[in-house]
Amino acid sequence: MTEEITAEERLANEQSHRAEPVPFVDYHANNRPWRVLFPPVYRYLPQQYVDAFFERGDIMLSSFAQFAKHPDEARGDVNEGTAILRAIGGGREMWALTKTGQHAYVLCGSQSLSKDLMSKFDGCDACIEITNVPDFALEISRHLVGFRNGISGHCIYGGRSLVRHMQGDPFPLPEGGGNVPIEQLFQSVAAAAQQEDLLLKERRFSYQAEHRLLWFVDTPPDHNIVVKAPNARAFCRRVDPAEIV
Fold first, then answer.
1. DSSP three-state, residue 22
2. How far is CA 178 from CA 57, 134, 174, in A?
3. What is the pLDDT of residue 195?
4. Which of 226, 190, 222, 198 is nearest to 77 (CA)?
5. 158-169 pLDDT tens trace
6. First and final CA of the chain: distance in angstroms?
7. Calpha distance 15→44 (Å, rounded)
8. C-beta of residue 23 within 8 angstroms of C-beta of residue 134
9. Among 5-9, 65-69, 125-129, the range of highest mean pLDDT
10. Contact 42/110 with Cβ under 8 angstroms?
11. pLDDT in tens, 137-189
12. Can the peptide bond before residue 21 be classed as cis, meaning omega within 30 degrees of 0?
């Protein structure tokens, strides 16, 4: 028997809860202003870890190496950080097999606040809303030894192949012939990938609507770490269970 719901209940289920203020970046070109908003990111966790974050500022960061070992199908992925790059331009093509992100700590969240999505992650029954992703990420970086730089973005669900259409030759050869310096090879691959290879995911994970944050450090992480960053709480909100529908 299907349970009927009222119009008021349906409206309540369709509400989007947001903290304020909303972070943004303003662009100006030829006197034409344009604003880009940064939507919140939702981190699903067991209740005890949500409590630990809001009580002490404790938050766990992982790595691609740890993702490969995770037994949970929704979290485990042995191919994280790998990509087949094809760069096309200037009448030529360049192919490369890349493996990146090995020097980064990683935190994953979702753009979707959903009870159904939360149920896909074993043991998760609570949620943190990261209301200001850039300032949250920068605050976490203050507590990482050897921090170099960071990146965050929405995951790209199309498999492990990245095709880049470029304006010029993606891999110019030396004018006088001879061997190509290995540094030039690395630079050409990096220029073509533009770090999007860090965000590639198999299409079967698209239901997660993942937003990924990466902090690059001097030494490749070999285990998960718990960062104590109490000031990062200023850029987060505890999600009320009633909001997760």
1. coil
2. 55, 45, 7
3. 87
4. 198
5. 888 888 898 888
6. 20
7. 19
8. yes
9. 125-129
10. yes
11. 999 999 999 999 999 999 999 888 888 898 888 887 777 777 777 888 788 88
12. yes
CB 62 within 8 A of CB 109: no
Other beta carbons within 10 Å of 119: 12
- How do beta strands 92-99 and 210-217 pair? unpaired
Decide: helix, strand or coil at residue 86.
strand
Distances (CA, A) of 28 to 31, 35, 102, 170, 209: 6, 9, 36, 30, 30
Q: Global pTM?
A: 0.85
Measured in whole angstroms, how far is the alpha carbon of residue 5 from the centre of its chain? 36
Per-residue 3-state assignment (H helix, E strand, C coil) for 50-85: HHHHHHHCEEEEECHHHHCCCCCCCCCCCCCCEEEE
For residue 90, which of 156, 169, 6 has the smallest C-alpha distance? 169
**Six token digits for residue 128:** 């943190």
